[in-house]
């Protein structure tokens, strides 16, 4: 049953995927000037015939609808074109950079869950206590602080107190595992703290919701011990919305990595994207943006699917 | 309405947020009245100087006063965030009303497009638009505005769907009011509390989006100061002169926190679910 749900969910995402592809395609054509203009830049020693040849080479002499067809065909064959600046294949660049972003995202998620879920649950159990108030205030402040500011504060604190700690100087995980973790620590903590604020708020309200349910009262009435009541009966159900939120946050996380990667000089997708933006390397911009959007569509499907697995009550429509 | 206002003002936190918002607006409209120095002029006797009575937020590597630059940056950020949400709420509301009130094919098309936009994280979509069309004030307002259109469209649609079935809308139909009139007078009027809450909460995230673009160097180009841009330039001096980055970041956090408190407070009194 779950499988047919998954299939249906995939099929209903097709229009969204098509829309994303169309938007990214059309956006480039709305830009004043075209790829050839960009490549030429200020060089004007080419003859008109040579310029026309460039247009033919890039298929820019054909009608827009034909160009869109070619674009779709290229996507299906994973031909993402080449960077205008480095001449490297865009798909290679993406796969080169993506592992760094993925590692950063996973580590931040670990920090965020480890901080956010327990605090939110404690706040809910001790509702209206001092701890609850503190959690709510800190959560609101965390929600309001820009990640780069939190990162800056952490850098100032760490560089002052831990002299030997490597904040910068990225190495890949397969080159030097420990050093990689050390360099990843602050960026992941920064991003994790931002996320923790949201997860904490969600965990609190979700747990409060569950604690008001009748079955909890029933369990209390029949004498289930407090720790069992919270740990077994309440927590399991409270986790459902938290998982959903965490899934939705993964998209937010990908956006957050742009800022954090550039702040901590990590060679991930976000840094690739900003570099491409600064160099006006349009094929790279296009495909990184599309890659991220596709990733989010896939993640949303997966989150919905996991949702049906942990909560059998979810109707599989 | 009067009762709602009383209820809102009963919480001290709400009053503080209102006072702060008024203060922020005044500072943003008249920065020159409050800045002790010209935000562009360089003080050759004070490079990278820490906070003092003369420069309360310190100075940057060119001897420019950080406090003055913060206030001018605040002005830019407030203009961009407010205009983009104004744009997004107008377009989003119209789309949401059409989708929710007429339903059918309109609903399907508009909501599918919104779904498509939701696949892009807001910062990435805004960055994409700015990267393609260049970063000037108008483009930034449009880029951030586009990001928030689907949020307003979806919220208004949901609310319009429920209002559509209510008795007074049916009554308006019976007495022969045109659809357009019903939509904009009866339905919209009933959505005003939802709109106010959505406007405030999204204003805070739009402010953060602009700040992030500024940090990445993609907001209004220098020498114009923006709050995010000030933090971005300051990160190079975090060890030797941390005030350059930390004070503008603090200003961003205060503005966003104020908007969030205000949004929460408004939701408490306006959201029918909480009554």
Low-confidence stretches of chain A: none
Using only C-alpha atoms, the radius of gyration of chain A works out to: 24 Å
The ordered H/E elements of chain B are: HHHHHHHHHHHH
Which structural class fits the helix and strand makeup of chain B?
A: mainly alpha
> What is the alpha-carbon Rg of chain B in Å?
22 Å
Give the N-to-C terminal Cα separation of chain B.
Answer: 14 Å
**Tally of individual domains of chain B:** 1
Secondary structure tally, helices of chain A: 13
Q: How does the overall form of chain A come out from the CA principal axes?
A: globular
CATH fold assignment of chain B: MetI-like fold
Name the average pLDDT of chain A.
84
Q: Please report the two chains with the greatest interface, counting residues with C-beta closer than 8 angstroms to the partner's C-beta.
A: A-B, 47 and 44 residues
């Amino acid at each position: 049953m779950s499988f047919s749900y998954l299939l249906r969910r995939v099929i209903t995402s097709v229009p969204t995927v098509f829309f994303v592809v169309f938007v990214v395609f059309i956006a480039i054509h709305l830009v004043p000037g075209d790829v050839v203009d960009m490549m030429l830049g200020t060089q004007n020693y080419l003859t008109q015939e040579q310029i026309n040849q460039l247009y033919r080479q890039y298929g820019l002499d054909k009608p827009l609808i034909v160009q869109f067809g070619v674009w779709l065909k290229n996507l299906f064959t994973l031909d993402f074109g080449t960077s205008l600046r480095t001449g490297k294949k865009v798909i290679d660049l993406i796969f080169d950079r993506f592992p760094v972003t993925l590692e950063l995202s996973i580590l931040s998620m670990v920090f965020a869950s480890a901080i956010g879920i327990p605090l939110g649950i404690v706040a809910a159990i001790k509702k209206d206590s001092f701890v609850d108030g503190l959690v709510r205030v800190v959560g609101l402040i965390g929600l309001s602080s820009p990640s780069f500011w939190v990162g800056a504060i952490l850098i100032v604190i760490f560089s002052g107190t831990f002299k030997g700690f490597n904040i910068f100087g990225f190495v890949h995980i397969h080159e030097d595992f420990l050093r990689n973790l050390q360099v990843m620590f602050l960026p992941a903590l920064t991003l994790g703290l931002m996320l923790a604020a949201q997860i904490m708020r969600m965990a609190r309200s979700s747990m409060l919701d569950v604690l008001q349910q009748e079955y909890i009262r029933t369990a209390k009435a029949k004498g289930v011990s407090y720790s069992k009541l919270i740990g077994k009966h309440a927590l399991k159900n409270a986790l459902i919305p938290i998982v959903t939120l965490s899934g939705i946050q993964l998209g937010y996380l990908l956006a957050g990595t742009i800022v954090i990667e550039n702040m901590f000089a990590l060679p991930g997708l976000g840094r690739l994207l900003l570099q491409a933006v600064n160099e006006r390397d349009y094929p790279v911009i296009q495909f990184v943006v599309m890659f991220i959007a596709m990733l989010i569509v896939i993640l949303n499907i997966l989150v919905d699917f996991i949702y049906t697995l942990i909560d059998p009550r979810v109707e599989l429509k | 309405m009067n009762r709602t206002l009383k209820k809102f003002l009963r919480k001290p936190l709400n009053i503080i947020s209102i006072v702060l918002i008024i203060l922020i607006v005044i500072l943003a409209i008249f920065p020159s009245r409050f800045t002790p120095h010209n935000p562009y002029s360089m003080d050759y006797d004070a490079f990278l100087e820490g906070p003092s009575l003369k420069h309360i937020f310190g100075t940057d590597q060119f001897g420019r006063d950080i406090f003055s630059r913060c206030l001018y940056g605040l002005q830019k950020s407030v203009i961009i965030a407010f205009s983009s949400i104004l744009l997004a709420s107008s377009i989003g509301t119209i789309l949401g009303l059409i989708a929710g009130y007429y339903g059918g094919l309109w609903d399907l098309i508009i909501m599918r497009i919104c779904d498509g936009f939701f696949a892009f994280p807001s910062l990435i979509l805004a960055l994409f638009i700015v990267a393609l069309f260049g970063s000037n004030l108008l483009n930034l307002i449009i880029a951030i505005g586009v990001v928030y259109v689907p949020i307003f469209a979806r919220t208004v649609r949901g609310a319009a769907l429920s209002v559509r079935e209510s008795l007074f809308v049916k009554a308006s139909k019976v007495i022969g009011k045109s659809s357009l009139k019903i939509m904009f007078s009866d339905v919209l009027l009933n959505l005003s509390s939802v709109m106010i809450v959505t406007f405030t909460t999204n204003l805070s995230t739009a402010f953060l989006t602009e700040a992030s673009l500024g940090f990445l160097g993609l907001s209004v180009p220098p020498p114009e100061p923006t709050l995010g841009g000030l933090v971005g330039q300051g990160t190079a001096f975090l060890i030797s002169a941390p005030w350059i980055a930390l004070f503008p970041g603090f200003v961003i956090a205060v503005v966003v926190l104020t908007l969030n408190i205000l949004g929460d407070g408004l939701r408490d009194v306006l959201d029918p679910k909480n009554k």
